[in-house]
Structure formats: C-alpha cells, structure tokens
Amino acid sequence: MNAFRIARTAIAASLLAGTALLAQSPAQTSVSDDPVEAVDPFIGTSGEGHTFPGAVAPFGMVQLSPDTHVGPARQTYDWAAGYRHEDPTILGFSHTHFSGAGHSDLGDFLVTPVSGDSVPLEAGDDKTPGYRSRKADEVASPGYYAVTLTDPGVRAELTAGTRVGVHRYAFPAGKAAHLVLDLRSIIYDYPGKILWSSVRIRPDGTITGSREIRGWATPRRIFFAMRFSAPLTSHQFVSTEKDILYKGFKGPGRGPETLASLSGRALVAQLDFGPLAKPLEVKVALSGVDEDGAIANLTSEAGDFDTIRASTRAAWNKALGAVKIAAPAPMRRNVYTALYHSLMAPSIWSDADGRWRGPDDQVHAGEGFTMHSTFSLWDTFRAEHPLLTLVQPEAKNADFVNALVAGQKTSPFGILPVWQFGGKETWTMIGYHAVPVIADACLKGIKGIDCAAALKAMVASADYAPYGGLGDYMKLGYVPIDREPEAASKTVEYAYDDWTIARLARQLGDSATAQRFEKRAGNWRNSFDEKTGFLRARKADGSFRTPFDPTAINYGSDYTEGNAWQYSWFMPHDQAGLFRLLGGDAKTVAKLDAMFDYDNSKIDYSHAEDISGLIGQYIHGNEPSHHVAYLYNYAGQPWRTQERLKQIVDSQYKPTPDGLAGNDDLGQMSAWLVFTALGFYPVAPGSNEYVIGRPFVDRADMALPNGQHFIVTTDGLSDANRYIGTVMLNGKPLERAYITDAEIRAGGTLHFTMQATPNKAWATGKKARPYSMTGYGR
Question: Where does the record place the Glycosyl hydrolase family 92 N-terminal domain (predicted)?
Fold first, then answer.
C-alpha cells in the first residue's frame, strides 16, 4: 500500500500448534524443533517488501532496527522501513519501525556508537564524514540483530522485549567509547518534522526525553528512558538549531557536577564512556504517555542483554510454534518468515501500568485489556487478522478488538480507526475496515469482547456521513465520483463492510440493523456496469464517468491503488451475484483467465509505486487482488484456482531479501502465504468459511487457541503434482471447496492427495461452492 499517495485525500475533502512431532518428509531438507531457526528476517528488506531486519518481540512496542539512508533519498518510497539490504552504510539504530508499510514515518531516537577521540554529531554523506558507518557481517533472527560497523570498529548487537530495546556494543580495546543520540533523525524527512524535543539526565544517571513530531500522524508524542551498563564520564547536549552547547560532566570517571537538560527542535547528544573493558549495554524503553511511563516500562522488564534476548527468543518460539511445519527447506523458510512477519503488529501501545495516549491526545487508564496500535486495516482485514484468530490466544485477539473499540470511543469524530499508529489516526486508505475485523472475531466466538457494544461502534462508523462520501453513499446507494475521489472502490468496500455489520447484527438478534445493512451490502451492484463487465465510477446524476479504460491506474481517480480489472472482483461476500451479472460460470472463468493472461507490454505503470507483482492484470503486490485466484472455486472450476496459486507462489515469494513481490503491509502479504501454504484462505472474512486452494507444505500442525489441533497432511506433493486429487476431512471425503471455521476449531485432520492432472469432478456443484450472499442455496 502506498499510503503517501492516498493519505488524507478523501478525508481532507470530507472530514477536515501442536505438541506432536512432525513426520520427516522425503522432500524435506531439514526440520528443527526450534522454529526461530527457520525464520530469515532479511526476506523483504530489498525489492518491494519494505520490511526491517531488526529486533522486535511478538507485537512489541519497540522495533529496534538499523536505519541505512540519509538525505533527500530518505523521502522515497523504498525506505519506508528505514532500511534496505543493499545499502552499504548504517546511520545507527532507532527504536520504532513499520514492517512492510507503503509509507514512511517513525525511526524514533537514533543511537549510534563512535570510537576514538573525535565524535561527529552529524550523520555525514558520501563527501563529508559523519557518524554513519560502513557495515559488514549482518546476521538476524527473531528478536536479535547484529552487524559490524567497520568505521568505528564496533560490533553492534540488538535485542528487544515487549516495551524495551537493548543495544550491546563491543568497542575496540583501548579506544574511548561514545554514543551519539540523535533526536533529529526520522525515517521520512517531513518539513518542520520535529515540533519539539527534550533530553535530560536524572539523578540516578537515567537519560530521559521526548519528542513531538509533525508527520504522517500529526502530532505524535513519544517518550524514552535510557540506562547504561557503564557510567558516563562526560556528555554534551547540543541544539543545532540554536547552536547551544550544554556540558554536564567534567573529567573521566567523575560523577555529575551538573544535571543537564535541553529542549528544542534539533537536539543531538554526545555520551562519553572512556575506554571500556567489556561491551557496553544500553537499555531503552518507550512510552506514549510520559517520561515516567518510559522509566516504569524500563523497570518492568528486568535483566541484561542476554536475559532479554533469551526471553524474546522463547516468546518467538512459542508464537511461531503455533504452526509446526514440515516442507522443503525453501518453502519452510518462506512460510515461517511469513508467520513471523504476521506476528509483529498490531503493536502494544499501553504502558506496563495500563495507561495509553489516545487519538484525542489524552491519557487513558487501562480498562482490563492491553492497548494496541499500528492498525493498517485496509490491508490486514483480509488475511492477517483472520490468521491471528487461529494462531494467537483468544485474549490477544480480544485485545485487538477492544483496542479498536477504545479507539472509536476516544476518537474526536466517534469512528473506528482507519490507519492508526502511535495512538494517532492518519486517515489513510479507504473503507471502515475495523468493522470486518471486529465482526469476524465476534462471529467466531472470540471471548473477552462486548460484541453488542462493538456493533454500536461499527454502526457509528458506517453512518458517519462526512467520512469518505458516506453521506452520498447512504442516499444514492453509491459514492459519486464527481463529489468524491476513488468512488468506485469506496462503493464496493463500504458494501462489504456493511455486510459484516449485518452478519453480526443477525447473530446478536438485532433484526432492524441487520435488514438495513443487508440492503446496503448490495450497493456494489450500483457501480457495476453490465455492458462493459467492469466496476465503474458513477456521477451523481447516475451516469458512468467517461472515458473509461479498465487498465488505467491513476491515484485519486476512480479506484484506490488499482484499476477496474482488480476492483471488479471486490464483492467477496457476493461472488454468485457478480457471476450472474457477468453471464454465468463460463464467462466468469473466461474473464478471470483474461485478467491473469493480459498482455501488459504496452502499458507503463512506472508512475504507480506500489503496483508490483503483476501476472497480467492480477497484481499480487497489492491487496485488492489477493482473493481473486480463489474465485475459480465459485465458478465450479477449483482446479483453475490450484493452477493459479502455483503460478503466484512460485513467482511472488522466495527466501531472499527481494523475496516479497510487494509491500508486506504489516503482515498481509505474509498472511496470504501462510493461509495458502496450508491449503485454504478467508476470501470473505465474516463468512466463517475458508476457501480451499491447494497446500504447499507436506504437513502442518496448528495449535488452536482452544487447545485443539488442526493438522494438514499431503501425499504426493511436488512441482509436477500441482492438482488436488482428493480431500479428506477427519477420514471422510470432503466434496466441497470450503471448510468452516467451526470445523477447524473442532480439531482434526485435513488430508490432500495431490496429482499431476486436474480432478474436474471435485467440488464443482453449486452446493459445493463457498458462501455467497445471494447464491448457491445455502
């Protein structure tokens, strides 16, 4: 997702695993009982993935990772995570990062080590030396990162706990050790980016500080507390804006003579330790509340570098161990890394004492759940959050939903989060996709959620007329393009979200709400042009906008980060209704084939940064296409889904730094692979069904939140055997192209027998097809 292109466009206008051991497979190169060993955090750190390799705990508040670029180039799309694997130098290590986002921000509180007598306080560039350094010998695993900074001769190691990050620096023997703490650095170089910042030394030697930032989410406040394993010998705080110098220590080895503090918009600190006999450890905690909160968070996680590293490694092994995978080594590495990326966000936002800062910029007390932020909901409602309902405890999924509802309660506009981080709203992307996340969890029976209260929050968002053309949508049944940009996309995304509201209302016995939103769920038809067979933008007078080119991608136009080819399939709740408009199964299959086989040789998409991973007009590098390969099942040709999935997996994922075809978008690209590798996918979250594709692993044992195990096994899996021959559920033939959430949660075994030729008799009948709002007699 390219958030920069879309951010605020519409809003500004309208708002102002199982404990069983896995059997060895003949195709399997190796299996470790320690899933951490199968993860490669460098996957996605080059190409279009936008991931970072640094240290983070599952859903951790701190993402401690290297930043590799400086200057105007840092404003570009490619450095959204602050890091690119191919960059030869490292600026230092900052404590907050997005994993795979389509827009830049964060990079809070950059720390970098310097050795020797001279300590530069500027990063430098290709012509001017500074504190940045060339790099060598990078290694990474979940919760750990290390690199040699060749210029100062320092081996740097990073680890992270839930609310802390820990650095360890081995300085050259006999040379003075220094740290530079740069409060000016940020991953995206916004004009006037730092509204205010501060740094000070407390009586016990703890350094604390804060900054308030004008960025993607504005204004955002973040606080830190920092302690060291060795005493400071001297320090200086500098404001490069005012050129003010504050010195706080005199002479090596002496205590503080002045407890210095400094505030301003451009602060950098030099922290001196003298020659050290052993590596220096630096422990840093963050808070969105205040400096005292950061200090409390620092205290809440006891232990040195090795203790925190071991604890986080154990946490990752537990989280990743929810799915025990046997597969050939490259696929196993891809899938476990995908699961790892899926477990980074939403990130914890409340302090250890439960306090958190909300979108109203007020501090709120804990309410019996752990507050989370970093919700990229336009992306993650599709597969990321449905995956988390299967591989994370119910309490964690309840935290996510309760955080969304709390965001609605504390929003100045009374609506659910759209794209939120650091407790602040960015108004990025379209739809109100907190709604399907909440509905899916409630419909699956996740405990710890007040679903009736959540439904009220969902309806409040769906009925907020100033948001994104909703007023016209409620009056006209569609969003008019002459009044609201990206109108075609908004119409169909609102309709899907409305369907999930109706589903939850039905379950809760609220018939009036259910009926109202069931009607709205059919609004996708109002923007579908039967003559051309495409979704199109309509004007307020009812006419379709012309001229019309289904391949055109222009930001701010009829569609959001896509075109008519991708968005004409976005009615995941009513594919049967769509297929009738297209003229039936055969014509639908022909149109799907035309999408995948489209010749793009005469089309230039270089202006569209996030349009990547093209297979014809199927764009796997961006989310609107993610369910499309599964739609052959709805037309009675599941073997075509199996063919397309093989084509996508082989071309879009590999265990290398450029191994993701598009932005991971906080885990959505990765969650797609995890589901697909297991053999099923949630085309319509809220339906409580998963559409069967085909497996890509020999065996997987999923430990479910309720204590049951759901096991996927395959016979005959190979490159040649890309088709399903038979499917068995708990020893009985499964003759339908879907499996229910209840069947998975009950535990059992789903067994696939693979073969080289299509089985054109399996799951082709209408009653064997997945759920559709208006079809198939179910």
Answer: 39-287
